[in-house]
Amino acid sequence: MSRGYKGINKVVLAYSGGLDTSVIAKWLQQTYDCEVVTFTADIGQGKEVEPARSKAKAMGIKEIFIEDLCEEFVRDYVNPMFRANALYEGEYLLGTSIARPLIAKRLVEIASETGADAIAHGATGKGNDQVRFELGAYALSPSIQVIAPWREWNLNSRDRLLDYCDKHGISVENRLGSKSPYSTDANLLHISYEGDVLENPADEPEEPMWLWTVSPETAPDIATYLELDYEKGDIVGIDGHRMSPASVLRHLNKVAGANGIGRADIVENRYVGMKSRGCYETPGGTVMLKAHRAIESVTLDRELAHLKDDLMPRYASLVYNGYWWSPERLAIQSLVDNSQQYVNGKVRLKLYKGNVIVIGRESNDSLFDEDVATFEDDAGAYDQADATGFIKLNALRLRIAAQKGRK
């Protein structure tokens, strides 16, 4: 039983109410002879979270936290990430990664509120989430103890988990085969799929797997038009209607998903060292990234925009690897947020059969000057002869190298 933990009398468990975390709740009670507090976060996963209360009560748990964190999730985590245009390895919009720091924060806060000695999670020893939960927890509460049952017990298969449930009277839904063959994770930003046929990266995902998006082939033949209002880099309204952060993302998920937008099939490099194939649906996020880059294209200074692009892969890796609360992510975020003070205006989009097409952008803070950019008579706004000296100065090092015979 001894795992190196000391004085464990109460543990706060990140609890979904599903098979794994229900087993963990009972296992913690038995293994550590401790009181268990459950925390269930509603971050827009699309299923009712309230049943977790009755399941926890059935196991004798007295302190049960069920919280709607959707607005905080989008306002304080999703939106700051999209201000940075974050994209991991060129494709992944970080839907799972960005949810973990919020859950870690609430776990340690609830531990403090309830006088708990430790927190626990249901992430496996092979994945990224164990790192994300624990790095977040230690950054916010350095002395907290973290219990990760998947790294300790021998219940390493669904059959063993079900046998444990039978032995200890834990109710389990969908045990007769109606459970999805995929391992999924959902929140307001995305839904992910792993396992089953996806474990072979050569196999095409089955169409019935996708839950949030229609296929581009069956999407409507008529395009959907949207106008997004931006203030300081965040979408604050759609089609003239001001909306809360979570409401914006819900609406974009709905209209983008209906137009076949947001599917991704990725083989990514996990932080723990292995490659993993996953499929993702991020309809609203796909629109957000495209539109944000569009409004930045007219409002950001060139060098500032390029600096952000230089920093973006580092920022994305920090989010993916669990360093949301690190000093380097916070420093980059400060720069990113400062860059957004003039990222205001409107972006008009056309959504059509899997495509997000920018058809217009405008801003009172635009740096686009038609008098300078025009191919017609610029009335002296730009002296084209100035380009001669500009080119010669920039070519100087290239000419010297060529004269020296260097290639």
From TrEMBL:
Pathway info: Amino-acid biosynthesis; L-arginine biosynthesis; L-arginine from L-ornithine and carbamoyl phosphate: step 2/3
Annotated organism of origin: OM182 bacterium MED-G28
Assembly information from the UniProt record: Homotetramer.
Source species taxonomy: Bacteria, Pseudomonadati, Pseudomonadota, Gammaproteobacteria, OMG group
GO MF annotation: an example: ATP binding
Keywords per UniProt: Amino-acid biosynthesis, Arginine biosynthesis, ATP-binding, Cytoplasm, Ligase, Nucleotide-binding
Similarity field: Belongs to the argininosuccinate synthase family. Type 1 subfamily.
Lipoprotein is among the record's keywords: no
Compartment list: Cytoplasm
Class of this enzyme: ligase
Name listed for the protein in its UniProt record: Argininosuccinate synthase
GO cellular component: cytoplasm
Record carries keyword Cell division: no
